[in-house]
Amino acid sequence: MIVALAALLAASRIVTLDEAVQSAREHQPQLRQARASTAAADARAQQAFSPLLPQLTATAGYQRTTANRIEQPGGFSVLGLAAGGSSFQTFNSWSDNITASQLIFDFGAQPNRWRAAKALADAQASTERATALAVDFNVRSAYFDARANQALVQVARETLDNLLKHLEQIRGFVEAGIRAEIDLAQARTDAANARVQLITAENTYQTSKLTLNAAMGVLGPTDYEIADTQLPPVTGEDAPLEALLDEAYRARPEVQSLQDQVRADQLTIRSIEGQYGPSLSATLGFRQGGTRLDRLGWNAAAGLSLSWNIFQGGLTQALVNEAQANVMATVAQLDLIRQQVQSDVDGARLAVRAAKESLSASREALMNARERLRLAEERYQVGAGGVIELGDAQVALTQAAAQAVQADDRLATARAQLLRAVGRQ
Length: 425
Fold this sequence. Notes:
Blueprint (H helix, E strand, L loop, with lengths): L1 H11 L1 E2 L1 H11 L1 H21 L5 E12 L23 E16 L3 H67 L5 H36 L8 E2 L14 H11 L1 H21 L5 E12 L6 E11 L7 H67 L5 H35 L4
Parallel strand pairs: 1-4
Antiparallel strand pairs: 2-3, 3-5, 5-6
């Protein structure tokens, strides 16, 4: 299916951001692994619940056995039977047994064990959501990186085209004797350097699409293009930090996962402490046996079973101590993730603010660089400016265009970071 999806994307020739994100959600191995782990955790919770339900077992057996009497010390001795009376004569022996049992009460040991397993399953489900957030961010980041590199290829191509135009103009001026030969040599050098920059930009773009393929969970070629998809402003991106933090603490699955883990550890303690008391079970059984199938004897029995581990060398207390230490460790980890959430939210919010200001300034710089190149071209044509001035203006325009592309990429990536930081997909 992954290869088929890759062929579909390649055939479409253009990949949008929504297609990339959807592909990652369906095919990313990390996310598929997280889903499998959640299913396994749910199954473990079901396993923990099964001892609370009635248990029914059935056995059947057949033996071909001797019937020699074996006397035991202190046992009843039959006069006239000696040990030498044993023989190898064998007989059929048939048996079957059906037993039903039900746990009645065990001071909460098994019920709390089941509740702890359910809490762990909830924690794993939250971990799966955290993986989904990370996958979304990774594919968006890779997409915007590829989009930026695609734009940089266009910048390099436009620069080369413009320098080739300058080269033809300067060649005409030199042939007419208006300009010196050194101007032509400089123009050729600039054009050659621009070709190298274009080749480098194209290779970087292709490499970034390989990274995007990995983020999408796709095995396939990179003979497609990236749509110029913009990430719209994040709702509340200019809101105060406190509002964003409140949302993040509620929505971040990492926080919920650790809270479920703490709950599971606390229930584990209660489950272990239940082992200090006895457990009570009810049993019901039916048994048959004999040497012939048509003449089997039978017995039925019903009863109660009380078991109590009175002393196990301090095992139960040691298990309680371990579980309590696990609670403290998880609570510390929860405090740490809350600090990380605050750092993520504040950092992403500041990155969005800085990127928006940088984008505005870079667009202004690009506009001024274009005007500078226009003026430099006019001055060179009338002989008022030199080739150095013209080259400097072209370099300034290329740098300004690249800076504008990078500023746009930083803003898109910062918004993707903010979405992840507050727990939104």
